Amino acid sequence: MNISEIVPGVRYVGVNDRTTTRFEALWPLPAGVSYNAYLVVGSEHIALIDTVEERFGGRLIENIRREIGNRPIDYLVINHMEPDHSSSIEALRLRYPNIRIVSNAKALQMVSGFYGITADTLEVKEGDTLDLGGLTLTFAMAPMVHWPETMVTWCPERQTLFSGDAFGTFGALDGGITDSHLDPNRYWEEMRRYYASIVGKYGSPVQKALAKVRTLAPATICPTHGPVWQHQVAQVLDLYDRLSRYEGEKGVVIAYGSMYGNTEQMAERIARHIAAEGAGPIVVHNLTYTDPSFVLRDIFHYDTLILGGPTYNGSLFPPVAQLADMLAARCIPRRKFAFFGSFCWAGAAVRWLDEFAGRMKWQPLGDPVELKQGFSEDADAACRRLAHDVATSLQNE
Ligand code: FEO
Prior knowledge:
alpha/beta; 35% helix; binds MU-OXO-diiron; six-stranded mixed sheet
Protein backbone atom coordinates (compact mmCIF):
# COMPACT_ATOMS: atom_id res chain seq x y z
CA MET A 1 0.00 0.00 0.00
CA ASN A 2 1.39 3.41 -0.98
CA ILE A 3 0.12 5.58 1.85
CA SER A 4 1.81 8.66 0.40
CA GLU A 5 -0.98 8.76 -2.22
CA ILE A 6 -3.60 10.76 -0.33
CA VAL A 7 -6.24 10.58 -3.07
CA PRO A 8 -5.66 9.55 -6.70
CA GLY A 9 -3.13 11.97 -8.19
CA VAL A 10 -2.22 13.69 -4.92
CA ARG A 11 1.02 12.48 -3.28
CA TYR A 12 2.57 13.51 0.03
CA VAL A 13 6.24 14.49 -0.28
CA GLY A 14 6.74 16.41 3.00
CA VAL A 15 9.28 15.77 5.75
CA ASN A 16 9.47 15.42 9.53
CA ASP A 17 11.69 17.68 11.61
CA ARG A 18 12.56 16.09 14.95
CA THR A 19 15.65 18.18 15.67
CA THR A 20 14.58 21.84 15.66
CA THR A 21 13.91 22.71 19.28
CA ARG A 22 11.93 25.93 18.77
CA PHE A 23 9.58 26.74 15.88
CA GLU A 24 10.09 30.34 14.70
CA ALA A 25 12.87 30.33 17.32
CA LEU A 26 10.07 30.75 19.88
CA TRP A 27 7.77 27.77 20.35
CA PRO A 28 9.06 24.44 21.75
CA LEU A 29 8.66 21.30 19.65
CA PRO A 30 8.66 18.38 22.11
CA ALA A 31 7.16 16.07 19.46
CA GLY A 32 8.78 17.70 16.41
CA VAL A 33 6.91 19.20 13.47
CA SER A 34 6.24 18.22 9.86
CA TYR A 35 6.64 20.47 6.83
CA ASN A 36 4.07 19.17 4.38
CA ALA A 37 4.38 19.41 0.60
CA TYR A 38 2.19 17.72 -2.00
CA LEU A 39 2.47 16.71 -5.64
CA VAL A 40 -0.61 16.94 -7.80
CA VAL A 41 -0.07 14.70 -10.81
CA GLY A 42 -2.28 15.44 -13.81
CA SER A 43 -2.19 13.65 -17.16
CA GLU A 44 -0.33 16.59 -18.74
CA HIS A 45 1.35 18.52 -15.96
CA ILE A 46 2.64 18.06 -12.42
CA ALA A 47 2.43 20.69 -9.69
CA LEU A 48 4.20 20.77 -6.35
CA ILE A 49 2.31 22.60 -3.62
CA ASP A 50 4.70 24.33 -1.20
CA THR A 51 8.21 23.22 -0.25
CA VAL A 52 9.87 22.55 3.13
CA GLU A 53 12.39 24.17 5.47
CA GLU A 54 15.70 24.46 3.62
CA ARG A 55 17.67 21.98 5.77
CA PHE A 56 15.27 19.31 4.50
CA GLY A 57 15.34 20.34 0.83
CA GLY A 58 17.39 17.28 -0.15
CA ARG A 59 14.88 14.98 1.52
CA LEU A 60 12.01 16.74 -0.27
CA ILE A 61 13.67 16.12 -3.65
CA GLU A 62 14.31 12.48 -2.68
CA ASN A 63 10.60 12.09 -1.81
CA ILE A 64 9.58 13.68 -5.12
CA ARG A 65 11.84 11.33 -7.09
CA ARG A 66 10.41 8.36 -5.22
CA GLU A 67 6.94 9.39 -6.40
CA ILE A 68 7.55 10.51 -10.00
CA GLY A 69 11.04 9.32 -10.88
CA ASN A 70 12.75 11.64 -13.34
CA ARG A 71 9.60 13.28 -14.68
CA PRO A 72 9.82 17.08 -14.49
CA ILE A 73 7.64 19.24 -12.26
CA ASP A 74 5.93 21.99 -14.25
CA TYR A 75 4.61 24.23 -11.47
CA LEU A 76 5.46 25.15 -7.90
CA VAL A 77 2.36 26.57 -6.24
CA ILE A 78 3.24 28.74 -3.25
CA ASN A 79 0.38 29.02 -0.79
CA HIS A 80 2.48 30.66 1.91
CA MET A 81 5.90 32.32 1.91
CA GLU A 82 7.05 31.85 5.50
CA PRO A 83 10.49 30.26 5.12
CA ASP A 84 9.49 26.99 6.82
CA HIS A 85 7.66 26.36 3.51
CA SER A 86 9.52 28.46 0.98
CA SER A 87 13.22 28.17 1.82
CA SER A 88 13.76 25.13 -0.42
CA ILE A 89 12.66 27.03 -3.53
CA GLU A 90 16.22 27.67 -4.66
CA ALA A 91 17.25 24.01 -4.22
CA LEU A 92 14.15 22.95 -6.09
CA ARG A 93 14.90 25.29 -8.99
CA LEU A 94 18.39 23.83 -9.28
CA ARG A 95 16.91 20.35 -9.64
CA TYR A 96 13.94 21.47 -11.81
CA PRO A 97 15.24 24.52 -13.76
CA ASN A 98 12.09 24.81 -15.92
CA ILE A 99 9.68 24.92 -12.99
CA ARG A 100 7.28 27.86 -12.99
CA ILE A 101 6.40 29.52 -9.68
CA VAL A 102 2.67 30.11 -9.30
CA SER A 103 1.26 32.45 -6.69
CA ASN A 104 -0.44 35.79 -6.07
CA ALA A 105 1.19 39.21 -6.48
CA LYS A 106 2.02 39.65 -2.77
CA ALA A 107 3.68 36.25 -2.58
CA LEU A 108 5.64 36.81 -5.80
CA GLN A 109 6.94 40.09 -4.38
CA MET A 110 8.17 38.08 -1.37
CA VAL A 111 9.74 35.45 -3.67
CA SER A 112 11.73 38.30 -5.15
CA GLY A 113 12.47 39.86 -1.75
CA PHE A 114 13.56 36.68 0.02
CA TYR A 115 15.24 34.81 -2.84
CA GLY A 116 15.86 37.32 -5.63
CA ILE A 117 13.74 35.25 -8.05
CA THR A 118 11.72 37.23 -10.60
CA ALA A 119 11.74 35.01 -13.71
CA ASP A 120 9.48 32.07 -14.60
CA THR A 121 6.61 33.13 -12.39
CA LEU A 122 2.88 33.03 -13.00
CA GLU A 123 0.65 35.42 -11.06
CA VAL A 124 -2.81 34.17 -10.11
CA LYS A 125 -5.82 35.91 -8.61
CA GLU A 126 -8.89 34.81 -6.68
CA GLY A 127 -10.73 32.11 -8.64
CA ASP A 128 -8.03 31.54 -11.29
CA THR A 129 -7.46 27.93 -12.31
CA LEU A 130 -4.55 25.85 -13.52
CA ASP A 131 -5.33 22.84 -15.71
CA LEU A 132 -3.01 19.89 -15.08
CA GLY A 133 -4.93 17.48 -17.31
CA GLY A 134 -7.81 15.72 -15.60
CA LEU A 135 -7.07 17.64 -12.40
CA THR A 136 -7.37 21.37 -11.94
CA LEU A 137 -6.20 23.73 -9.22
CA THR A 138 -8.21 26.78 -8.20
CA PHE A 139 -6.80 29.53 -6.03
CA ALA A 140 -8.52 31.41 -3.21
CA MET A 141 -6.91 34.17 -1.16
CA ALA A 142 -6.77 33.73 2.62
CA PRO A 143 -4.87 36.83 3.81
CA MET A 144 -3.47 36.77 7.36
CA VAL A 145 -3.87 33.01 7.76
CA HIS A 146 -1.09 33.44 8.58
CA TRP A 147 0.69 36.15 6.51
CA PRO A 148 -0.85 38.72 4.14
CA GLU A 149 0.10 36.76 1.00
CA THR A 150 -1.48 33.49 2.16
CA MET A 151 -3.76 31.65 -0.23
CA VAL A 152 -5.29 28.18 -0.40
CA THR A 153 -5.49 25.85 -3.38
CA TRP A 154 -8.49 23.72 -4.24
CA CYS A 155 -8.61 20.61 -6.43
CA PRO A 156 -12.32 20.19 -7.26
CA GLU A 157 -11.99 16.77 -8.94
CA ARG A 158 -10.66 15.34 -5.65
CA GLN A 159 -12.55 17.65 -3.26
CA THR A 160 -9.14 18.34 -1.75
CA LEU A 161 -8.04 21.60 -0.12
CA PHE A 162 -4.39 22.56 0.27
CA SER A 163 -4.89 24.88 3.20
CA GLY A 164 -1.48 26.29 4.09
CA ASP A 165 -1.00 26.82 7.83
CA ALA A 166 -4.75 26.64 8.46
CA PHE A 167 -5.73 23.40 10.24
CA GLY A 168 -2.06 22.63 10.93
CA THR A 169 -0.60 21.22 14.14
CA PHE A 170 2.74 20.84 15.83
CA GLY A 171 3.96 17.25 16.08
CA ALA A 172 5.83 15.16 13.51
CA LEU A 173 3.90 12.51 11.58
CA ASP A 174 4.53 9.19 13.30
CA GLY A 175 4.38 6.79 10.39
CA GLY A 176 0.98 7.68 8.96
CA ILE A 177 0.09 10.78 6.99
CA THR A 178 -3.70 10.91 7.04
CA ASP A 179 -5.88 10.76 10.13
CA SER A 180 -6.80 7.18 9.27
CA HIS A 181 -3.18 6.01 9.41
CA LEU A 182 -2.22 7.64 12.71
CA ASP A 183 -3.87 8.42 16.02
CA PRO A 184 -5.47 11.87 15.55
CA ASN A 185 -6.06 12.20 19.30
CA ARG A 186 -2.35 12.91 19.73
CA TYR A 187 -2.72 16.08 17.66
CA TRP A 188 -5.73 17.98 19.03
CA GLU A 189 -3.83 19.65 21.87
CA GLU A 190 -0.97 20.45 19.51
CA MET A 191 -3.46 21.98 17.07
CA ARG A 192 -4.66 24.26 19.87
CA ARG A 193 -1.09 25.15 20.86
CA TYR A 194 -0.14 25.79 17.24
CA TYR A 195 -3.20 27.99 16.72
CA ALA A 196 -2.76 29.93 19.97
CA SER A 197 0.96 30.52 19.33
CA ILE A 198 1.03 31.20 15.60
CA VAL A 199 -2.40 32.22 14.30
CA GLY A 200 -4.13 33.37 17.50
CA LYS A 201 -4.02 37.09 16.63
CA TYR A 202 -5.93 36.59 13.38
CA GLY A 203 -9.37 35.38 14.48
CA SER A 204 -11.31 37.55 12.07
CA PRO A 205 -9.30 36.59 8.93
CA VAL A 206 -9.59 32.93 9.98
CA GLN A 207 -13.36 33.31 10.20
CA LYS A 208 -13.41 34.75 6.65
CA ALA A 209 -11.27 31.87 5.37
CA LEU A 210 -13.51 29.35 7.17
CA ALA A 211 -16.55 30.74 5.36
CA LYS A 212 -14.83 30.06 2.02
CA VAL A 213 -13.77 26.58 3.12
CA ARG A 214 -17.28 25.65 4.24
CA THR A 215 -18.59 26.61 0.79
CA LEU A 216 -16.14 24.19 -0.79
CA ALA A 217 -17.06 21.36 1.63
CA PRO A 218 -13.68 19.59 1.36
CA ALA A 219 -13.43 15.83 1.77
CA THR A 220 -9.66 16.07 2.32
CA ILE A 221 -7.68 18.90 3.94
CA CYS A 222 -3.94 18.97 3.31
CA PRO A 223 -2.31 21.52 5.67
CA THR A 224 1.35 22.50 5.76
CA HIS A 225 1.88 20.97 9.22
CA GLY A 226 0.54 17.82 10.89
CA PRO A 227 -1.90 15.17 9.69
CA VAL A 228 -3.90 15.26 6.47
CA TRP A 229 -7.54 15.38 7.54
CA GLN A 230 -10.11 13.07 5.94
CA HIS A 231 -12.13 11.37 8.68
CA GLN A 232 -12.02 14.27 11.12
CA VAL A 233 -12.73 17.19 8.76
CA ALA A 234 -15.87 18.24 10.63
CA GLN A 235 -14.05 18.21 14.00
CA VAL A 236 -11.15 20.22 12.55
CA LEU A 237 -13.47 22.88 11.11
CA ASP A 238 -15.40 23.02 14.37
CA LEU A 239 -12.26 23.44 16.48
CA TYR A 240 -10.93 26.20 14.20
CA ASP A 241 -14.29 27.91 14.32
CA ARG A 242 -14.31 27.95 18.14
CA LEU A 243 -10.67 29.02 18.38
CA SER A 244 -11.07 31.87 15.89
CA ARG A 245 -14.20 33.10 17.64
CA TYR A 246 -12.13 33.05 20.87
CA GLU A 247 -14.86 30.92 22.38
CA GLY A 248 -13.54 29.16 25.49
CA GLU A 249 -15.05 26.00 26.91
CA LYS A 250 -16.09 25.95 30.55
CA GLY A 251 -12.94 25.76 32.66
CA VAL A 252 -10.34 27.85 34.46
CA VAL A 253 -6.63 28.45 33.91
CA ILE A 254 -4.66 29.72 36.90
CA ALA A 255 -1.32 31.13 35.73
CA TYR A 256 1.05 32.64 38.24
CA GLY A 257 4.62 33.60 39.03
CA SER A 258 6.20 33.34 42.45
CA MET A 259 9.70 34.09 43.78
CA TYR A 260 9.62 32.57 47.26
CA GLY A 261 6.36 30.61 47.34
CA ASN A 262 3.95 33.07 48.95
CA THR A 263 2.18 33.98 45.70
CA GLU A 264 2.30 30.32 44.76
CA GLN A 265 0.37 29.51 47.93
CA MET A 266 -2.35 31.89 46.75
CA ALA A 267 -2.56 30.10 43.40
CA GLU A 268 -2.69 26.69 45.07
CA ARG A 269 -5.35 27.76 47.57
CA ILE A 270 -7.54 29.37 44.91
CA ALA A 271 -7.32 26.19 42.82
CA ARG A 272 -8.13 24.00 45.83
CA HIS A 273 -11.11 26.13 46.88
CA ILE A 274 -12.55 26.09 43.33
CA ALA A 275 -12.17 22.31 43.24
CA ALA A 276 -13.78 22.02 46.69
CA GLU A 277 -16.86 23.74 45.27
CA GLY A 278 -17.04 21.10 42.56
CA ALA A 279 -16.18 23.49 39.70
CA GLY A 280 -13.66 22.89 36.93
CA PRO A 281 -11.79 21.73 34.98
CA ILE A 282 -8.84 23.59 36.51
CA VAL A 283 -5.37 23.93 34.97
CA VAL A 284 -2.53 25.53 36.97
CA HIS A 285 0.70 26.83 35.40
CA ASN A 286 3.80 28.24 37.10
CA LEU A 287 4.95 30.76 34.50
CA THR A 288 8.61 30.54 35.49
CA TYR A 289 8.66 26.91 34.41
CA THR A 290 5.93 26.40 31.80
CA ASP A 291 6.59 27.65 28.30
CA PRO A 292 4.01 30.32 27.38
CA SER A 293 2.79 28.34 24.35
CA PHE A 294 1.28 25.69 26.65
CA VAL A 295 -0.37 28.39 28.76
CA LEU A 296 -1.73 30.20 25.69
CA ARG A 297 -3.08 26.85 24.46
CA ASP A 298 -5.06 26.40 27.65
CA ILE A 299 -6.25 30.02 27.74
CA PHE A 300 -7.61 29.58 24.20
CA HIS A 301 -9.24 26.35 25.41
CA TYR A 302 -11.02 27.63 28.55
CA ASP A 303 -13.23 30.62 29.24
CA THR A 304 -11.87 31.74 32.63
CA LEU A 305 -8.41 33.02 33.51
CA ILE A 306 -6.93 33.83 36.90
CA LEU A 307 -3.58 35.57 36.73
CA GLY A 308 -1.30 36.34 39.65
CA GLY A 309 2.21 37.43 40.51
CA PRO A 310 4.41 39.36 42.89
CA THR A 311 5.53 42.95 42.58
CA TYR A 312 8.99 43.23 41.03
CA ASN A 313 10.93 46.47 40.45
CA GLY A 314 7.77 48.49 41.01
CA SER A 315 5.89 46.50 38.38
CA LEU A 316 4.54 42.97 37.77
CA PHE A 317 6.86 39.93 37.97
CA PRO A 318 8.30 39.64 34.41
CA PRO A 319 7.07 36.14 33.40
CA VAL A 320 3.49 37.14 34.29
CA ALA A 321 3.80 40.48 32.49
CA GLN A 322 5.19 38.65 29.45
CA LEU A 323 2.17 36.35 29.32
CA ALA A 324 -0.17 39.32 29.69
CA ASP A 325 1.59 41.03 26.76
CA MET A 326 1.13 37.89 24.67
CA LEU A 327 -2.59 37.88 25.47
CA ALA A 328 -2.88 41.54 24.51
CA ALA A 329 -1.02 40.84 21.24
CA ARG A 330 -3.61 38.17 20.42
CA CYS A 331 -6.48 40.64 20.95
CA ILE A 332 -8.56 38.09 22.89
CA PRO A 333 -11.88 39.90 23.10
CA ARG A 334 -13.31 38.22 26.20
CA ARG A 335 -12.34 36.02 29.11
CA LYS A 336 -13.78 35.82 32.59
CA PHE A 337 -10.85 37.26 34.49
CA ALA A 338 -9.76 37.33 38.11
CA PHE A 339 -6.38 38.25 39.58
CA PHE A 340 -4.21 38.31 42.63
CA GLY A 341 -0.77 39.60 43.60
CA SER A 342 1.70 40.29 46.34
CA PHE A 343 4.29 42.76 47.49
CA CYS A 344 6.82 43.33 50.22
CA TRP A 345 6.92 47.10 50.79
CA ALA A 346 5.01 48.83 47.94
CA GLY A 347 2.33 47.06 45.93
CA ALA A 348 2.27 47.30 42.12
CA ALA A 349 1.31 43.83 40.80
CA VAL A 350 -2.43 44.01 41.55
CA ARG A 351 -2.65 47.54 40.16
CA TRP A 352 -0.83 46.36 37.00
CA LEU A 353 -3.29 43.48 36.55
CA ASP A 354 -6.26 45.75 37.15
CA GLU A 355 -5.01 48.10 34.42
CA PHE A 356 -4.41 45.09 32.17
CA ALA A 357 -8.06 44.04 32.61
CA GLY A 358 -9.05 47.57 31.61
CA ARG A 359 -6.84 47.48 28.50
CA MET A 360 -8.36 44.15 27.47
CA LYS A 361 -11.87 45.39 28.29
CA TRP A 362 -12.36 42.31 30.48
CA GLN A 363 -14.76 42.79 33.40
CA PRO A 364 -12.95 41.41 36.50
CA LEU A 365 -14.66 38.67 38.47
CA GLY A 366 -14.69 38.93 42.29
CA ASP A 367 -12.33 40.99 44.44
CA PRO A 368 -8.62 40.72 43.62
CA VAL A 369 -6.50 39.34 46.45
CA GLU A 370 -3.44 41.36 47.44
CA LEU A 371 -0.95 39.82 49.85
CA LYS A 372 1.62 41.80 51.84
CA GLN A 373 4.70 39.69 52.60
CA GLY A 374 4.01 36.17 53.93
CA PHE A 375 1.00 33.97 53.19
CA SER A 376 -1.53 34.05 56.03
CA GLU A 377 -4.94 32.79 57.16
CA ASP A 378 -6.41 36.17 56.14
CA ALA A 379 -5.00 35.72 52.66
CA ASP A 380 -6.46 32.22 52.54
CA ALA A 381 -9.89 33.58 53.42
CA ALA A 382 -9.62 36.16 50.62
CA CYS A 383 -8.53 33.41 48.19
CA ARG A 384 -11.58 31.37 49.26
CA ARG A 385 -13.91 34.30 48.51
CA LEU A 386 -12.35 34.85 45.09
CA ALA A 387 -12.52 31.12 44.36
CA HIS A 388 -16.17 31.07 45.37
CA ASP A 389 -16.99 33.85 42.88
CA VAL A 390 -15.12 32.02 40.10
CA ALA A 391 -16.74 28.67 40.95
CA THR A 392 -20.20 30.23 41.02
CA SER A 393 -19.59 31.81 37.63
CA LEU A 394 -18.45 28.46 36.19
CA GLN A 395 -21.40 26.62 37.68
CA ASN A 396 -23.90 29.14 36.31
CA GLU A 397 -22.81 28.63 32.68
FE1 FEO B 1 4.20 27.12 8.70
FE2 FEO B 1 3.27 30.49 8.70
O1 FEO B 1 4.34 28.96 8.33
